[in-house]
UniProtKB/TrEMBL annotation:
<feature type="transmembrane region" description="Helical">
    <location>
        <begin position="94"/>
        <end position="117"/>
    </location>
</feature>
<protein>
    <recommendedName>
        <fullName>DUF7670 domain-containing protein</fullName>
    </recommendedName>
</protein>
<dbReference type="InterPro" id="IPR056087">
    <property type="entry name" value="DUF7670"/>
</dbReference>
<keyword id="KW-0812">Transmembrane</keyword>
<feature type="transmembrane region" description="Helical">
    <location>
        <begin position="69"/>
        <end position="88"/>
    </location>
</feature>
<keyword id="KW-1133">Transmembrane helix</keyword>
<dbReference type="Pfam" id="PF24709">
    <property type="entry name" value="DUF7670"/>
</dbReference>
<feature type="transmembrane region" description="Helical">
    <location>
        <begin position="40"/>
        <end position="62"/>
    </location>
</feature>
<feature type="transmembrane region" description="Helical">
    <location>
        <begin position="7"/>
        <end position="28"/>
    </location>
</feature>
<keyword id="KW-0472">Membrane</keyword>
<feature type="domain" description="DUF7670">
    <location>
        <begin position="2"/>
        <end position="126"/>
    </location>
</feature>
Length: 135
């Protein structure tokens, strides 16, 4: 039972870190030999702004799982239409755009659900322990 609780505790955190690292890879396209070093660094940091925001949300979720879970669900589901439309306009393929949604935004919605599940399991366990102490 304790192993399941540890898995549920760590799974959203690990998936979120991996998803943020994946999103951060897109910042590498800021490096262009035609630009100066400073232009490349500024471009790289600007491309990393979404990653910094996601790291901030992960810190919030780490402390307050329920609030963090809601934030990640909102990010995952809220940004999906925008990412879909942007990619559909670029490649005119519904299936490719859906695949991109599955890779970029849906992992954050899954992370949000896992944070909420983790929070509920911990609250139930805490309530169960308090009831056992009273009896």
């Amino acid at each position: 039972m304790k192993l399941n609780i540890k898995i549920i505790h760590w799974l959203p955190r690990i998936i979120c870190i991996l998803a943020i690292l994946f999103i951060s890879l897109f910042a590498l396209d800021a490096f262009d030999p035609k630009l100066t070093v400073w232009q490349q660094i500024i471009g790289f940091l600007m491309h990393l702004i979404p990653s910094f925001i996601l790291i901030l949300f992960l810190i919030i979720a780490w402390k307050k799982e329920y609030i963090g879970g809601i934030l990640f669900i909102l990010i995952g589901l809220g940004l999906s239409p925008f990412v879909f439309i942007h990619n559909y306009n670029m490649n005119q393929s519904v299936w490719l755009s859906l695949l991109i949604i599955l890779m970029i935004t849906i992992p954050f919605a899954i992370v949000g659900v896992l944070f909420i599940i983790s929070n509920r399991i911990k609250r139930r366990r805490q309530a169960f322990n308090e009831n056992n102490k009273q009896n």
